[in-house]
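User: Before I run my own analysis I want an independent prediction to cross-check against. Here's the chain; please return only the structure tokens and, at the end, one sentence I can use as a sanity check.
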Amino acid sequence: MSKPTIAILSAESMSDEMDLDLADIAAIFEYATSRLSAIRTELESTRHTLPIKTRRIIGQYLNWEGESFTLPWMSFCAGLSISPPLSRNLRFFVGVLSMKQVGLVTNFEEIYDALMTLPTAPAGPWQKGRLTRTYCTPWWMNTANIVADDNFLHTYPNCLQVQQIIAEHFKQLPEGKVLITPVTLTIPMCTPVAEQLSNIHAEVLHEGQLIVKMLEDKVVEAKMVAATMLRMDTALGQDVVKAITATKKLTKYLKREAAQ
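Assistant: Structure tokens:
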């Protein structure tokens, strides 16, 4: 497909443009995943010695990470109806940042605490990305003496700078660039939530076996949703688990009633 042209990510780069295709978008999210794993691994060695103030500052920098290398590109994907390939850990991280934006997470220290619940050694490359020797602006390498640099925290890389950062990252990977599933196009204005609501609205008009079949399908779909939600031990994840259990019980009851 032809490459869409996207403009800047920061006010300082209003004239910058960058051509990118679906493979480029996938590379950005792979970089974000690798960077997140590098940060988490490094912080693990100091997690029990950092004071609250330092953890709060680290949370500010983690917020900057999301606003620099993840959230803007997710918004770009949404605008083009593209489904981005986010690892489990990156999805969790985005979920935490989203909760911060809507006030469910109230301070930067909670962002740090949430990040530290991620495993330090994910199962494979899909989860952790491919770590490299160096990263651009590795602020996490000196957390013992870290300070909140307001100039840094309010300045974001523009498109051309992100392109250069990603290129440098992949230069350090001798095994090549093919790893994660590339982004895919989706139906415009059709989100999974909207699909679920539409399906439920249509199916509840029927009775008997159609309702039972719908509930069985929703149990499977809810499990898939739960597997990609933040983490199963969050309040939101627990709500999904309880909903799945309740739906299973209702399905068994309706089947028993239908058989009588």
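Sanity check: The chain has two domains: 5-185, 192-259.
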